[in-house]
Each structure stands twice: as structure tokens, then as C-alpha cells.
Amino acid sequence: MDRHKWTDLGEGGIALSERIMEFISARDPDRVRELFFLIEEAVVPVNGPMRVGAEAVSACLVQGLLSATPSSRREILYLLFQLAGGVVDTPDSNLVHGVRRELELGFPIYGQIAEVGTSDERLQCIDLLSLCARFNKPCLDRATSLMRRIAEVGDREASTVSVELEDLRRDGYIP
Fold first, then answer.
1. What is the pLDDT of residues 75-106, one digit of tens each?
2. Backbone angles phi, psi at 9, to 5 degrees
């Protein structure tokens, strides 16, 4: 958190950093949801491109996965996926590159959570692993291998992995 210049984001920067810290450590599911929407609206609104601060938020959320509460972990993963989706609609290539880089740095964490997390967390991680495979060619083999292992865990995981692998094939990432 400290490496980011929250004051450069204007009045809301400090509040945003405080919300992220609370989001990561929140135990009450209602408060987790409330913080999710506040952070999402600040950096990756539903109707618009990512905003300045998305890179710092991505970095903090990826790092926060290591200490997240069970109540917040799945929502953090989902918000990271929302940030990844925001790169499509964002014209600022520097911002897109920064967010993608931060999301890619989370690859080992997503892999670990996918193997030991809850079913819902695994599903979110499958999506993030697939995105990392698209963003970064060296992640492709590791991501597909991990996803195939995760598919053996249950029907929901198998179905999601099947869709992601088919999408990667269709889009030319894997033969």
C-alpha cells in the first residue's frame, strides 16, 4: 500500500486506500459487498473505462489475497477479474499495461488458491488463470496444466475449465 501515491489520485485517493485495507480484512459479508462496490466504482465503473488508480488497486488486491479473510477472498478475486475485463474498454495503453502486469504477478497466488480454496474461489481463479494465459504467453502452459488439474476436483470446476480451454483454443492460444 505504501509504495503507491494515493494523494496523486485526488481527494478520494486516501479514502480508496483505506477502503482497500478494510476490504481485505473485512469479516462481515455485507460490509465486504459494500466495499466491493465502492472500490469497483472508483476504478472500474460498470459503464466506462478504467480510471487512474486501477493499477495501484490491482497491485494491492493481488498482494491482499495472501492475508484476505475468507469473507473477502472470493470478492477480491472477482474484483480482480472485473479489473481484467476493464482493460478491453480502456483507451489508455499505459494504464492497461500496468493493470495487466499487476494481474499477471498474481498468477502463482491464483494457482495456489485454485488448488486449496473453496469451489467459488476456484471458479474465480480459473477465470484469472485463463486471462493470464491470454496476457502472457509464458503463463499459457502453466495455466492450462493447472486448469486441467482443477477440473478433476468437481463438476462446476470441470465445466468452467472446459469452457475456458475451448475459448483459448478458439482464439488460437492453444492448438
1. 999 999 988 877 666 677 888 888 889 999 99
2. -90, 5
CA distance 73 to 155: 22
Helix, strand and coil percent figures for the chain, each rounded to 5: 75, 0, 25
62 three-state secondary structure: helix
Which class for 92: exposed (0-12), middle (13-18), buried (19 or more C-beta within 10 A)?
A: middle
Which of left, alpha, beta for 48 (phi over 0: left; psi -120 to 50: alpha)? left
* Entry pTM: 0.89
> How many other CB atoms sit within 10 Å of the CB of residue 37?
12
The answer to whether residues 52 and 37 touch, using CB atoms and an 8 Å cutoff, is no
Return the amino acid letter for 20: I
